[in-house]
Amino acid sequence: MSAPTLHRRAGEVVANRPLGAYRQLSVVLPALATPARPGQFVIVPPARADHVLPRTWWVAGERTEAGFGTTLELVVPGTGALPAPGEELQLTGPVGRGFGLPTTPVTAVVAAQGAAGAAARWLCELLRSVGCTVHLVSCADEPEQHVDLVLARRSADGVVLTELGSAAATLADLTHTLTPSVLYAAGPLSLSRTVALVAERAGAVSQVSGVGIGAEGLCGHGLCGACDLPLRATAGRGATVRPCADGPVLRGAVVDWAAVVDGDSVVAGDAVVEMGES
Q1: What are the sequence ranges of the domains in the chain?
Q2: In angstroms, rounded to a whole number, what is the distance separating the alpha carbons of residues 138 and 87?
Q3: 249 and 208 Cβ atoms separated by less than 8 Å
Q4: Which of 31, 50, 62, 75 is least enclosed by beta carbons within 10 angstroms?
Q5: Rounded to whole angstroms, how far apart are CA atoms 109 and 275?
Q6: Cα–Cα distance measured from residue 173 to residue 194, given in angstroms and rounded to the nearest whole number
Q7: CA pseudo-torsion sign 56, 135, 105, 121
Q8: Are 163 and 139 in contact (CB under 8 A)?
């Protein structure tokens, strides 16, 4: 499998502001040839000279103005060295395949965890712009980890807050009530697995993040293989997908979630409750 050809570009940071437990950077770049989409990410150099692997950050918004360029909104961890307004930022991206929008208006559920909450809010905006009814489920154990809630409540028809340990039950109950056609997951693999299993049991389609954006130990370029996921047997014995190169957004139904090992688990695969159970 060959990695995609990626190009680094220089941008200027014009804002660096708090966003709950995270920071939101606004970065101005030369105009992008193709608009960014929710689910994509950027790759930036390591925070320290003695670190080898780069950092990956969620893209949480994009706007392009004639004669001015493109402004990307990036959500990043609230710790570590970050550029200040006026400083240059070298970045690669936006990278990969973002979330797809339905071709006709449907009911959708978007689940988010961590910094991905800002990207999920952006996805809700776009879903509503094409006529969809959208409900956002924000999963976190600490209040400051529910990000962008003011804007989220303007962007979604309903917002549900849940703790990580209750995420599966909350999603199952909401899916039973709303009967959505599609479920989305923006966050770590543990949330993607939960959403994919809930969607499968409900007979719905799922689109999920195939790689934990912001996690350590990932190159972001599709070269190291650390993000490889096993595919179901229908794809061939031993088949895998490399989300950095072929995603990051994947159809949840193609991944063999029973074979995925993830230490940051929201809920084990066999703990997903049946639709309508209390």
Answers
A1: 8-95, 107-254
A2: 32
A3: yes
A4: 50
A5: 15
A6: 13
A7: negative
A8: yes
* Secondary-structure breakdown of the chain: helix, strand, coil percentages, each rounded to the nearest 5: 25, 35, 40
CA angle 133, 118, 142 (to 5 degrees): 105
- pLDDT reported for residue 275: 40
- CA dist 253 and 205 (Å) reads 8
Per the DSSP assignment, residues forming a β-bridge with 14 are: none
Instruction: Compute the distance between CA of residue 49 and CA of residue 39 in angstroms, rounded to an integer.
Output: 28
> If you search the block for the tokens 């989409």, which residue do you land on?
37
Whether 185 contacts 252, CB under 8 Å: yes
Q: Look up residue 56 and give its two tokens.
A: 């990956």
Q: What confidence score (pLDDT) does residue 242 get?
A: 83
Q: Mean pLDDT for each consecutive 10-residue tract of the chain (278 residues)?
A: 65 94 94 91 84 87 89 87 92 92 97 94 97 97 89 94 96 97 96 96 96 78 78 73 86 90 43 40
CATH 3.40.50.1000 fits 8-95, yes or no: no
Rounded Cα distance between 3 and 110, Å, is 29
Rounded Cα–Cα distance for residues 132 and 140 (Å): 25
Q: Comparing C-alpha atoms, which of 27, 108, 65, 55 is closest to residue 220?
A: 55
| Separation between Cα atoms, residue 61 and residue 75, nearest integer Å | 9
The pLDDT assigned to 45 comes to 87
Architecture field, domain 107-254: 3-Layer(aba) Sandwich (3.40)
**Virtual torsion, Cα 187, 193, 194, 198, nearest 10 deg:** 120
